[in-house]
Write a structure and sequence with these properties.
Length: 154
């Protein structure tokens, strides 16, 4: 092989060696980037798993809150029904009391010449008037709410 052929081969080896080194450096850069991106993906996936677990926990809290709210609504409905029944009972009892008192007072004053009987005490009359028990109409929804709040303070 001639010197010229060797020189051509040497130039080609040198050129290919340069390309090979450049490719090797590119490969190192890409491998480094892949490693960094792989770490980033793993970190992001771990964070995503944590967020999904947190979401599930919060969804469970919301479900429990919905259940609690449903239970409270049932209690409110039952309490409201009990209040309506108590109001109706109080109205009926007051009506019966008033009717009997009028009759007893008439018998006492006209038949026996006595003074009228003692009525309800002032505190009971205040509650009756405040609740509208002595009136001939049902209290409005707004008045019922007021009545409920007043009853809770008694």
């Amino acid at each position: 092989m001639s010197s010229e052929d060797k020189l051509i081969i040497l130039k080609e080896v040198r050129h290919k060696s340069f390309i090979m080194e450049r490719n090797k450096q590119d490969l190192r850069n890409h491998l480094s980037t892949v490693t960094a991106e792989d770490k980033c993906v793993n970190d992001c996936m771990a964070e995503l798993v944590k967020m999904e677990q947190e979401k599930k926990a919060r969804m469970e809290e919301l479900r429990q809150l919905d259940n609690d709210m449903a239970c409270i609504q049932i209690i409110v409905d039952q309490a409201n029904q009990a209040r309506i029944e108590a109001f109706s009972g109080a109205r009926s009892s007051y009506g019966q009391f008033s009717t009997v008192k009028k009759h007893v007072d008439m018998l006492r004053s006209e038949g026996l010449g006595l003074e009228t009987s003692q009525g309800l005490d002032e505190e009971a009359m205040e509650v009756i008037n405040r609740l509208g028990i002595g009136s001939d109409h049902e209290p409005s929804q707004e008045n019922r709410q007021t009545v409920s709040s007043k009853l809770s303070h008694m």
